Amino acid sequence: MKGIKRLAQHLDISIGTVSRALNGKPDVNEETRRRVLDAAALLGYAPNQAGRSLRRGSTNAVGFMIESNDETETNSDNFFLGVIGGLTGALLKHNLDLVVLPCSVNEDPHDYLQRIVARRLVDAVIISATQRRDRRIDLLKAARIPFIALGRTGGPDEHAWIDLDFEGVAHKAVARLAALGHRQIAVAIPDNEINLGYVFRDAFEDAMAHHRLTVDPSHIIRARSSEHGGYTIGNALLAMEKRPTAIVLVYEMMAIGLYRRLNEAGLTPGRDLAVVGFREGPQSQFLSPALTSFRMSLRDLGIGLAEGLLATMPAYADQFPQGFVHKLWPMELVEGESDAMVIGR
Amino acid sequence: MKGIKRLAQHLDISIGTVSRALNGKPDVNEETRRRVLDAAALLGYAPNQAGRSLRRGSTNAVGFMIESNDETETNSDNFFLGVIGGLTGALLKHNLDLVVLPCSVNEDPHDYLQRIVARRLVDAVIISATQRRDRRIDLLKAARIPFIALGRTGGPDEHAWIDLDFEGVAHKAVARLAALGHRQIAVAIPDNEINLGYVFRDAFEDAMAHHRLTVDPSHIIRARSSEHGGYTIGNALLAMEKRPTAIVLVYEMMAIGLYRRLNEAGLTPGRDLAVVGFREGPQSQFLSPALTSFRMSLRDLGIGLAEGLLATMPAYADQFPQGFVHKLWPMELVEGESDAMVIGR
DNA sequence: CGATTCTTCAGAAACGTTTACGAAAGCCCA
DNA sequence: TGGGCTTTCGTAAACGTTTCTGAAGAATCG
Question: Mean of the per-residue pLDDT values for chain A?
């Protein structure tokens, strides 16, 4: 005999009463409830999750979908992993389990998520790396699964999302460079279909226009989102006849590779080329010269995502104002010397 | 009508046959099986996980238990998070779900795990930050839950574990320092009950004895496992009348704080004090002078843990040689300049 | 051709929980 | 006293799946 039956037998009452006692239902005598709770603590009883999920129709778990480059491309930065740190802490407070949903790069994220949804593995889900047109959103809406997106899409946004404040970053970066006299400013964009690239490009062009600067099309450089991508950016820059005097990067690891390529060419960031990085990583403060970049707390982002997600879940309607969070996550400029050069006069 | 019933109705066969077809049971006509598989793909059917778990008695998920400092102590390094990256990739290959089990620092890890076990949330579990005497191991053995420990314990080891090769690290560090002429070598130990501290201390003393060096008890410095802990180590060193000429750290973030404290005192690592760090982080290669430390792949460690865990699970007896993995994870010396000083003559 | 085996499938039970329903007992009040 | 509440609890059904049991029909064999 196991589970609730054992507990009921031990107390010589019915399993229905045990269940009601444990779940705080009103129609149970207070003394009985206390006896049940005591016995449960004594025997170390906790309800079997599968049985409970099946009956209730909800699993008490939320999923975090990330893309997993299961190959040995070790460039994987720890962005998502840092977010997980915040997520677990916030979800722990509400006794929700977190299941990591790693979608192999070989599989279509939509198909992967569809299987998760069909299995009813989680009650709600966080999707990341949103694409410009992301079918996962239609899927989740149709299945009525609460969700929040980490990243905007190109389509309508009748759903919860949090995204980095690319507009703010682009404006701060361009304003700073423009003030230093730069007129030829390049931008690095990841060469994938993630919406981030489109958003940042638009934001950059906006910022440039705001400062009455024109963007040379050849100065919009597409590269892989990795250290190696930064190296190729260096190649591209060195091959240009009219080289920009500054560049803004959109992926933290790019700075490492770009530094390396510049050093190989005998050039110094902040003297021969102004470099503005993206997210401040553990390494950026140690790069020499120190990289000008933007700071944010991955942990806090995780917490924000958790709260935004809970706000979409009917079960938490009493604890969170229901509705769709739309939030641009602020990033704070960290001044380094990698762009400390004055142009012209 | 939902789930397998819908599929069965659509095909006009019984749900039993549908289930057997999907699960590759032999007693089903091949043409029927094909029809079922086609229909399942068409309708996007995947078996409800709760129903399946309940019936099968296994959940198709493994847990990774970490301690979550849900407070804002942001010092949390990304060690465990890096491991998760490897775990997800390896588990994905076997279609196992990963659920993160964050135990609040306020709760007893044993009680937390007991609840997880009682809920039957996962089929197997990875525990980390093992203590010298870790009751979780008795719990898991008694419940017959397959598990692997990240970290040794002080007790018998009739279970699977993987731990960092602290012995190798201590020996390499001491050998290197001894060759440079150091005789007064200190060691930093975390001031918690995690077994790691005991193991490293023993390994350090072994290594010292091997080089016929004596360990001054005051040179065994206990400090918090954080950057701030490194700072307090600096304080302790500066306050000593007979200061050691070298120190070996056992936690990566300690190096940052120690550097800071030394700099404040006008001292330079590698000139005034030889510093050997522990795990090479993204930052250590950028510290100035470059930190001598030890390299390992968190991702590979995650993969190793996954494989060691699968080897303990009866369900994978055909794919992995069953048995208990006992493995010291090698760490490779990365030479920096933080200990490049010659003592005496 | 009858007996036996094999193939294929339908039906039903079981996993552990929650909850709708109803019943028993106590109470109140006319 | 008896009818109607209220309180408390037991019973049974339901969630979606897998698997056991057995049965019908086809195939094989003596």
Answer: 93
A238 occurs within a structural domain: yes
Return d(Cα B338, Cα B332) in angstroms, integer. 16
Q: Which CATH number characterizes residue B235's domain? A: 3.40.50.2300
Q: Which residues of B50-71 are buried (b: 16+ CB within 10 A; e: fewer)?
A: bbbbbeeebbbbbbbbbbbbbe
Same domain, yes or no, for B128 and B66?
yes
Which residues constitute the domain of residue B32?
A: 3-47
* Chain D: bases < 7 Å from a protein Cβ: 7-12, 14-20, 22
CB-CB contact of B92 with A102 (8 Å): yes
Strand C reaches within 7 A of the B9 CB: no
A218 and A249 part of one domain: yes
Identify whether residues B99 and B180 lie together within a single domain.
Answer: no
Question: Which residues of chain B does A54 touch, with a Cβ-Cβ cutoff of 8 Å?
Answer: 48, 50-51, 54
Contact assignment for A119 to B92 by CB distance below 8 Å: no
Nearest CA-CA distance, residue A48 and chain B, Å: 4
Interface contact flag, B99 A61, Cβ < 8 Å: yes
Surface-to-core class of residue A235, CB atoms within 10 Å of its CB (0-12 exposed, 13-18 middle, 19+ buried): middle
Q: Quick one: A111 and A157 in the same domain?
A: yes
Residue type, A126: I
Q: Do B153 and B83 have their domain in common?
A: yes
What confidence tens digit (pLDDT) does each residue in A259-316 have? 999 999 999 999 999 999 999 876 776 788 999 999 999 999 999 999 999 999 999 9
> B304 and B267 in one domain?
no
Question: Rounded to an integer, what distance in angstroms lies between the CA atom of residue A342 and that of residue A339?
Answer: 9
Using CB atoms, pick whichever of A72, A84, A281 lies closest to residue B100. Answer: A84
In a domain, A153, yes or no: yes
Let me know: does B323 contact B146? Beta carbons within 8 Å.
Answer: no
Question: What is the pLDDT, as a whole number, of residue A285?
Answer: 67
Residues A170 and A158 in one domain: no
Chain B interface includes A29 (CB < 8 A) = no
For residues A185-212, give the mean pLDDT.
95
Q: Is B52 contained in some domain?
A: no
Each as own residue / partner, the long-range contacts of residues A114-117 (CB below 8 Å, 24 or more positions apart, any chain) are: A114/A139, A114/B44, A115/B46, A116/A63, A116/A65, A117/A143, A117/A145
Pick the closest to residue B306 from B63, B111, B68 (CA basis): B63
Averaged pLDDT of chain B? 93
CA dist B259 and B190 (Å) reads: 18
Tokens describing residue B209: 């004895």
Claim to verify: residue A291 and residue A171 sit in the same structural domain = yes
Q: How far apart are CA A226 and CA B152, in angstroms?
A: 35
CB contact set of B4 (below 8 Å; sequence gap of 6+): B15, B18, B19, B45, B47
- CA dist A177 and A174 (Å) reads 5
| Number of domains making up chain B | 3
Of all residues in chain A, what percent carry a pLDDT higher than 70?
A: 96
Question: Alpha-carbon distance B61 to B261, whole Å?
Answer: 45
> Are B270 and B339 within 8 A, CB to CB?
yes
Checking if the pLDDT of A329 tops 50, the result is: yes
* CATH number of the domain that residue A23 is part of: 1.10.260.40
Residue B341 in any domain: the answer is no
A54 CB-to-strand C distance under 7 Å: yes
